[in-house]
Amino acid sequence: MRNTSHFVTATSPRLLSVVVILSIAGLVTGRAHSQDSVQLESSKSNVDSEESTATLRQRADQLQRAITDLYSKGKHREAIAKAKQVAEIRRQLFGDDHPHYAASLNNLGELHRAQAEYDEAKATFRQALRILEKALGKDDPQYAFVLLNQGLLCVDTADYEEATGHFDSAVSALKKGLGENHPRYALALNNQGLLYRELGRLDRAESLYHQAAEIVQRSVGEQHPLYATTLNNLADIDQDRHEKARAESSYRKAAEIMKAAYGEDHSGYAMCLNNLADFYRDQGDFPKAEPLAIKAVEILKRSLGKKHPHYAVAMTNLGRLYLANKDFSRAEPLLRDASDLLKKTVGPQHPWYASSRHRLGELYLAKGDQGQAKQLLKDALAVYERALGDNHPRLIEILTSYGRLLNQTGHEEEAKAVQNRVDGIRARVASDKIEHVRR
Asked: CATH code at 390?
């Protein structure tokens, strides 16, 4: 979920680096939906009877079909309500320690994650993992798949160290348990690639994305949304490396697949539009970028709501587009609203929040308000450094802006030190790029 601008940098969040495909992600049974309201029967005597057991099973199946449909339409809140009912039914049918109950908890946790309810997702995944560890062991693919989802949650919350451990364990177990041609293994590789890209390790991320794409092609085909996800992620790498034609083609194809699979009102399609808009912005093509960015914001507002961080990210990117076009009156309210929302949803130590503050800092710098610009840029830089380290490529752009501000305010020596730091990061990135070409 990032963006690139100059030199393999990634300073504006890019959406749709991961899309969880429920037909693949379901553990024991698929997730599903129905508009029907189902009242659970809680008495033990009912569950004990064969008739009541059959009725509960049927209700759970109806609800699961409903959840899948709701999820595909981006209606996470409605899906969560039904997923809670499924979990309770399965708890009654199978008990608190059964893998079927854990599967329902995994699905519920994933829906909470999609809705950016991170605390609820974390608690639910942990409960599912405790059950599966006791029932099946840590090497079982079902345990590994929940661990993979927990790793994604850690990426969402910028806890990259914990995510690394979860992904390493999950990928190893899924490879051993399901084999190298299974779509779940492909999804695991894709998600591990996402983490490496966040950490600035583009070569490793690209290799994982390619492996995932090849498996997806063989196992579920090129029209599956998971293939769109891998295409999108490969396009991110191509854009980082200024492979413009290939990046544009992949972004467009990913959007077409998502549109065909889910329709034009789905958040997955909106995320593709957002990324394509970012691509055109980076090429300086404002007429192509603006309608795509506006449409992405509108779809995410309808599908996820005005309190979801992905909506805020899309607003940040639209604000950045107006900033690049020097339309400050449109850029400022978007960036301010996005910053306020991201502070509430992902917290002030998250790179997404830093990105919104970074762009606000650039806006004030462009307007000549150096005091506000300095504080915003310093705050954003500190968040980036804590989350990503001191030498991440993502720092290049904000350091360049900060150095420019220092020069404007007469702090030439500090500006030189900042420029030396930028040059060092650029040199490391260039060295990595040369090594990539040699291979």
From this structure: 1.25.40.10
